[in-house]
Amino acid sequence: MSSQEFDRPPAEAGFPSGVRVPAIAVLTVLALLAVFCTFRLGGQPDASETRVVAPSQQWFADILARSVGESVNDAVGDLATAVKLYGSEPGRGPEHAIEYFARTSSHTRGLAVLDRPSGRLLAAAGEPVAIESVAVGDVGKTTARVVVDRQGGAWTVTADVLPGGDQLIVVSTKLAVSTDNPGTVLLSTMDGELVRLRPGERDDDELVRQAASAAADGTSGYVVGAAGQGTIPIVAYAPVTTGAAKTKLGVSVLLAGSVPAVENTRLEGVLVPTVTLLGVMLLVLLLLGGALIRPVRQLRANALAIASGRLDTPVGTYRISEMNRIATALERCRRTLAGESPAAPPRRRRFSARTAVVLATVVVLVWSGAVMLTLGRQEVQVPKQAVQITQSLANTTAAAVQGSLQQGVTDLKAFATRIVSADSAQLRPALAELAFRHPRYRSVYVVDLSGNVEARAGRAPLRQDGRPPREHGLHQQNTVGRVPVVYASAPLAGGRHVLIGELDVVKLSAVVRKPGGVGRLVDAGLRTVAATVGFRAHEKITAEPLSRNVSNALRGEPEPTVEQVDGRMSVIASAPIRGSRLTSELQWAIVIQQPVSELPLPGNDIRRNAWLASLVAAVAALGLLGWHLLVLVLPLRRVAANADRLAEGDISTVIYPQRPDEIGTIARCLELCRQAIDKKGS
């Protein structure tokens, strides 16, 4: 055999070839995973109170801002509807307009009639009206502005053009801003002016100014301050938007609160995954390196030596079956070429290379499954404050629904007081304006005492024909059917007609909406009236924890709790729709079901990160198995089969190298040995 065959090692391709590449890639992934586990599973600051309270404060601010916007819209709608009805009245002097609007607008605090061309005040009544806030020349339809002062006052100033076009009616109403919220409520204007709606309260002025500056951009969010005096200040902000007014009010709602500061704690036992993963990496390295990579490279060195003519060193034995078979063939070739007896010592069958790869894969999969079954399924502790906040969400939502329902009746009452004639031709334009300005109604119409519709606006009525209620109030007509029918009623002057406004269930669902989880509006029979997600009308709550919680709330004993609902741990809270004389007939309640897994808690982060780590480890294990089978085990088994034929004396079958790596080099060396033996024999 010529010693010139392999004066220099044959060229071998790099990545992704090479017996070391798969192991290096998998170990690199596992090392990065260990770093991930160290930082994401190795214990995190327990900031659960801040992370739960801050988004909730923002949601409270959003609700409050929507409530303020709806208050402005209602003021705009009331004025626009009143102007429509005023158009049918004779005699339109300034004093007559003041008398009419004062009589038909119960919430009005001040009235003014202006000359449209000059802006001159023609008549006024009630409290002074901030007429300087009205751009007289720009008023072509109903407009609104929010006016605030430093004493904590806030008013909606609404203006519209009176019939004839040469006079403006300006109405000032108290802005409805609920201060029944968990925190200090402030209003912020575009120029940075702040108004505290509860004077005397103290808060973090610097943080409030920071929130006001952010709110000036027209976005919502929250800012968190530094811990001090045992609390962490939080200020949430949301812009006040309007629908029917179609104007930018330039006012934002700020909600300042705080959360108790707690010392950072670390979750115990979560370093175990990192430590065990390091052990897994060591075991994988021993299995792949000690049983496969190093033996293959040693066998390659032996094969190169024999193919290069260095025949003085015997080929040793190997623990892996495939490599041991190749070594047997190489040793036989060495002895034959060296002129020694071709008989090789017997070789025992060893473990397969596939066994080592499978064992390494199983080790990684066991770690993956252990992480999933421990940290991935651990019970998350819900702090008491998170439970109380869910109850506050229920209370605030119930108050918002109560306000929307109450306003629905108030709108109809105000409309009814303005009607001087039940003539359908005169009523239709005003009803159309009422339906347009107040989208909470799907349909508004006037019926006689027999229930016959005489004038209508909006969609077709769902209320069944029959005698209408003879008093103001809210009513739920059905408890079965495709759509819940809820309507407000207001008798007209004379008692011979009744104004009906059917509430839009979709709009009610929008009021019930909340961040995450499921919010439901249910009646006294625990049947669903509206919900934040898809629901079937009048579907009854059957889950025992939910029904018990709602029943307690309807009895006036709300009790937020954490229980399992449909296989998921959830925070449950309910609040009744507080009855007034107009809404007590409904006996509705809000129930909120917040899955614990959706709360921003460190325990949930640990679980999600554990799922991610487990998934990455499982993918790495499958990659380890597949890659090693393709680039190491299967090629090695093919070379071993060729080596068996050569060891048995078959020197006529050509051995083709199939891969440009270490195993391919071994195959080329076997082929050179076969050729040398063939030449020597001939």
TrEMBL record:
Signal sequence interval, chain numbering: none
Regions crossing the membrane: 21-41, 270-293, 356-375, 610-636
EC number: 2.7.13.3
SUPFAM superfamilies linked to this entry: HAMP domain-like (SSF158472)
Domain HAMP: 290-337, 630-682
Highest taxon listed in the record's lineage: Bacteria
Keywords, comma-separated and alphabetical: ATP-binding, Kinase, Membrane, Nucleotide-binding, Phosphoprotein, Transferase, Transmembrane, Transmembrane helix, Two-component regulatory system
Catalytic activity: ATP + protein L-histidine = ADP + protein N-phospho-L-histidine
PANTHER family (UniProt xref): SENSOR PROTEIN CREC (PTHR44936)
Name of protein: histidine kinase
Organism: Kibdelosporangium banguiense
Taxonomic classification: Bacteria, Bacillati, Actinomycetota, Actinomycetes, Pseudonocardiales
